[in-house]
Amino acid sequence: MRERYPGYDVLAKRDTPSWNDQTRRAIDARMAIPLAARRFFSDDEWPTVQAICGRIVPQPRDRARPAPVAAMIDAKLAADDRDGYRHASMPPQREAWRRGVRAIDAEAQARLGARFHALAPDAQDEVLKAAQRGEARSDAWGDMPPAEFFRARLLHDVLGAYYAHPSAWSEIGFGGPASPRGYVRMNFDRRDPWEAAEALPGREADARRDNASVR
Predict the structure, then answer these.
(1) pLDDT per residue over 106-125, tens digit each?
(2) 50: how many CB neighbours lie within 10 A of its CB?
(3) Helix runs in the chain, H state only
(4) I need a labelling partner for 100 at 20 to 30 A (CA). Which of 11, 24, 90, 168 fits?
(5) pLDDT one-digit tens code per residue, 124-151
(6) Closest of 211, 209, 177 to residue 191, by C-alpha
(7) Annotated region Disordered: where (predicted)?
């Protein structure tokens, strides 16, 4: 997969005017979360949660700092850190996740004869797409709509965790909170010197050189 921002590492901004002390503390805490850290999910649930996260946001195998997506979701649930609202058709988020994980495993078992984490990637996608389309049929879903669980919990929580992590910021050229420096050149196709340069086809070396000095 082509890198859009080659050579860019948002963490190079850590000790520059781009970030203040509050930002540094928040990012340091996220970076300190181990990939396998968990307090909420059980031994039985954890492999399925990790596999689900790996299919929703697959990460490069050679990434030096993988975003600990499953661990970040686990931490959110362990702290009962809620969104401030709830869809009427959904149970509270802790119950929704527990029921959803069990239902995805049951769906995988019924359709393909194995638990979700034991399936090949294409087979895992088949199970997730069935939930996304509202075509999952396992009794384990109960009265929780599979499509709503996929949209309001899986996508919401998995993508929210992923794009809250600096590894994802480097991937998309995001500079972080930019406090106190902020952004100045707001017009179309303009960027501040402390923003990442996107690589144009055939000019990746130019972007890599520019991004090596972004702070």
Answers:
(1) 999 999 999 999 999 999 99
(2) 19
(3) 21-31, 46-56, 69-78, 93-112, 121-132, 146-149, 156-162, 166-172, 204-211
(4) 168
(5) 999 999 999 999 999 999 999 999 999 9
(6) 211
(7) 196-215
